[in-house]
Amino acid sequence: MARSDQNGMTNNAGIAYGDLIRRQRKAKKMNQEELGALVKVGKNAVGAWEAGRSRPDVGSVPVICDALDLSLEEFFGYPDRSGEFGADLTGILPEERAALLRKYSSLNPYNRQVVMKQMDMLYGMQEVVPIPRKIIRLFRNELAASAGPGETLEAARGEEVYLFADSVTEMADEIIRVNGNSMEPTFADGDMVLVKHTGSVREGEIGVFICGDTGYIKEYRKDGLHSHNPAYAPLTFSENEPVHCVGKVIGKVMANAWADDESVRAWQEYERKER
User: Fold this and answer.
1) What is residue 70's DSSP assignment?
2) How far apart are CA 177 and CA 58, in angstroms?
3) How far apart are alpha carbons 178 and 174 in whole angstroms?
4) In what order do the strands lie in the sheet with 174-179?
């Protein structure tokens, strides 16, 4: 049987709450004042907890656990059973958890049993609906850009297409097709690249540039626009040939990034229900 002191200053595993809070606070490189600010109590209250003169109010425990990266099971000294039902608490705000715990602790034993039975019933009735993969819409420009003469990208002829969302596609504003082999081996003829609209790029970054009626995908350097294929010389422009940057190339559209019709419909239906 787990040890517990008479004043209730230790948890079910026999660990003093004050020692647990102090250890985790120091591991997080946090002082008492900083922890108190997160929990909305004074520095003296944190000091009293750690000295064993008092114990945190039950309603503050979830906030303390969030601040110190502790689970409720660890704090109260119970075995971690969070995986028993595949529990995921990330969607519950600390304030909500605190309110639930505070209300539950105020119930008598009989009403606690009633609450647990009703929760079990609701859990059994709950329909588990999987969240479909997120879909984003992007404009795919029909015009191409690379080395040599091409059509102006500013005409912006094209259509909206659907891609699966990820850390790269969600940053993009447009899709542009590569024309020619001047950027091989980085990009091949016909590749679709993701472009984030910016007015400039840093040296060493690949951008989409417009000069007159010609679009280029090149690496920007101080002495000109460079191809990755050594067969092509750098492009330089005179003062009478204004060049402006359309955006930065942030990646290539991979074959598995294009969303199929069924996935698009599933995501649109999910969004409609969530509104």
Assistant:
1) -
2) 59
3) 13
4) 158-164, 135-146, 174-179, 192-197, 243-252, 206-211, 214-221, 224-226
Per-residue confidence (pLDDT) for residue 127, from 0 to 100 = 64
CB 47 within 8 A of CB 32: yes
How many helices and strands (H and E) does the chain possess?
A: 8, 8
* Cα–Cα distance, 52 to 50 (Å, whole number): 5
What is the four-CA torsion angle of 151, 240, 221, 191, rounded to 10 degrees? 0
Kindly state the tokens that stand for 166: 């990820």
Amino acid at 41: V
Mean pLDDT by 10 residues, the chain (275 residues): 52 84 91 90 90 84 86 73 47 70 80 80 70 92 55 63 93 91 92 92 93 87 93 89 90 93 93 81
75 contacts 20 by C-beta, under 8 angstroms: yes
Q: What kind and span of H or E run contains 66?
A: helix 61-68
DSSP assigned state of 154: G
- The pLDDT of residue 144 is 62
Q: Which of 207, 195, 211 is nearest to 253 (CA)?
A: 195
pLDDT at position 106, please? 80
Q: What global pTM score does this model have? A: 0.52
Cα separation, 169 vs 173, whole angstroms: 8
